[in-house]
Amino acid sequence: MYSLFYYFLVINLLAIISLKAQNRTEAMSKDTTQNNNTTPLVQGASYISFKEKIYHFGRVKQGEKVRYSFQFINLGTQDLFLYEVQTSCGCTVTTWPRKAIKPQESSEVEIVFDTTNKLGMQNKVVLIISNAQNKEEKLTLTGEVILP
């Protein structure tokens, strides 16, 4: 008798959890629409989405410059503006778009890391500050600097 009661209790709890998950999925789908590429769009805001956020440059000789461009797209329905791009040290320089990035438009943030006077494992972080719904994003260059 008790095992039958617990069986029905477990079934009811699973049904409730399933319904809540379905409601959450439906609510999320109301916040986004689909474009021709089936990429979700964030309604009423800009949204920056990077193809990748970490670049492993492997091993480089001290004194070399590591250069990498992080590709991104605006998945929002409003223009995206990058307000500021902050580096973790003076050895890292960035180039980034100063103009509006339209919805579904792509661009890039280029990072150049000068390995002069650096040695060993390196982890350089660049902070992207924008008007996007995800206001701050971190990009990372990581790798090892060895003696020439």
What are the defining features of this structure?
alpha+beta, Immunoglobulin-like, 2 domains, four-stranded antiparallel sheet, four-stranded mixed sheet, 10 strands
Walk me through the structure.
The chain has 148 residues and is α+β, with helices and mostly antiparallel strands. The chain folds into two domains: 2-34; 42-146, Immunoglobulin-like (Sandwich), CATH 2.60.40. 20% of the residues lie in helices and 46% in strands. The chain is built from one helix and ten strands; from the N terminus they run αββββββββββ. The protein has one helix at residues 2-31, and strands spanning 32-34, 40-42, 48-50, 54-61, 65-74, 82-87, 92-95, 106-114, 120-130, 136-146. A four-stranded antiparallel beta sheet has the order 3-5-8-7, with no helix packed on it. The protein has a four-stranded mixed beta sheet with strand order 4-10-9-6, with no helix packed on it. It has a two-stranded antiparallel sheet with strand order 1-2. The longest helix has 30 residues, at 2-31. The radius of gyration is 23 Å and the shape is elongated.
